[in-house]
Hints:
The structure holds two protein chains of two kinds.
Chain A: H1 2-7, E1 14-17, E2 36-39, E3 43-49, E4 67-75, H2 78-86, E5 92-96, E6 99-101, E7 106-107, H3 123-129, E8 132-136, E9 148-149, E10 164-166, E11 170-175, E12 178-184, H4 189-195, E13 200-203
Parallel strand pairs in A: 1-2, 1-5, 5-8, 6-9, 8-10, 12-13
Antiparallel strand pairs in A: 2-3, 3-4, 6-7, 10-11, 11-12
Helix pairs in contact in A: 2-3
Chain B: E1 4-6, H1 9-12, E2 21-24, H2 34-43, E3 48-51, H3 62-67, E4 71-76, H4 85-92, E5 97-100, H5 103-115, E6 120-122, E7 136-139, E8 142-147, E9 152-158, E10 161-163, E11 168-169, H6 178-183, E12 185-192, E13 194-196, E14 215-218, H7 220-225, H8 228-232
Parallel strand pairs in B: 1-14, 2-3, 2-9, 3-4, 4-5, 9-12, 10-13, 12-14
Antiparallel strand pairs in B: 6-8, 7-8, 10-11
Amino acid sequence: MAALVAADIPRGAFVNLGIGLPTLVADHLAADSGVVLHTENGMLNMGPAAHGEQIDPDLTNAGKVPVTELPGASYFHHADSFAMMRGGHLDICVLGGFQVSAAGDLANWHTGEPDAIPAVGGAMDLAIGARRVFVMMTLFTKTGEPKLVPRCTYPLTGLACVDRVYTDHAVFELGARGVVVRETFGMGVEELAERLEVPLSGFASAEPGRDEA
Amino acid sequence: MTTRLCADAAEAVAGIQDGATVLVGGFGMAGMPVALIDALIRQGAEDLTIVSNNAGNGDTGLAALLAERRVRKVICSFPRQSDSYVFDALYRAGEIELEVVPQGTLAERMRAAGAGIGAFYCPTGVGTPLAEGKETRVIDGRAHVLEYPIRGDVALIGAHRADRMGNLVYRKTARNFGPVMATAATLVVAQVREVVEIGGIDPETVVTPGIYVDRVFVDQVLEDRVSQEARAC
Lengths: 213, 233
């Protein structure tokens, strides 16, 4: 999944990778991709995780994991970092998801359980701020319930913000044409249509890495 | 007013009143003014509203202040962490108020306070539980939520270096909320690793101009933790 997302990120894009599954995308970006990673705690051109003597308490990613800086990196404060998102300067963000609706609504911050402590971080800002939002998630819950749904039942993170959903069974494109299956892995479109309650319109052939910037 | 260089942490937090709203910098431990928080615990102010990205980790810093039952309310973006057990227990017992704010909106509400902006319309959170009860307006075809400034009585921030004018520079991602919080409170206290003479910081590299900074305190413990390499930056 992470390799597929990485292949679909255009060269030179400014990208934010959310905490969790999306973090893995960084390992699949080609060294010469020119992709610039943004971390919302105030840095552009973030490098890989820091190890041993590289660890610096002043240099972490949004998950508070020690990271490194690449040549050409820059630092900025939080208001600037989020202005970068809301202002439409970030090309892509990749987020995890609990549920995505056919209309592109995203739920990824709160299970809605009464004793759960709500914690949103930067998810809502990223969801509505980045020019394109990719979600990475398993297509079904552990009990087999679809996570691509007609309407989200979990509290929302953002309305109509998701452009593409990468799952373990298929990649879906969301937009004016509804939910378009872009590619499948193991599971056929008919079976997908059977197991999902969202209408699937058409089948678009994937051309990884050929997205327009 | 001229920035005062404080001899110790107690002087740096002197005068913080019961019921104060305190902005606390840092993102995780990066930029967290731990010595100032420890001093605030000793100072004794209670019934505080804390504005910070998180609600404390482990048993030190903000978590220790919470454990002392000195905080009435926390305004933050991300209270729940693997080791936020002090906050979690207080919250589940109904002994602390929580206002969750999207991280960018949290920063922008403080920026607005510091910049004299009355309120602003923001697209973040539209259609979510965090926008419930808030005024919304469609601008240029897009829905926005009306957000009000967050002003602090006090800001406690961590920075890398100060000069005697109170000009501050930060280091790497430890900058985070510091520059914004420094603009948004009546009393701004900066914990730094070193203070240099006037002229010791290149004016082109100043991030927080001294006009915002009331008190500076050099934390020796923090200084000791910084590697040789870090000092060279």
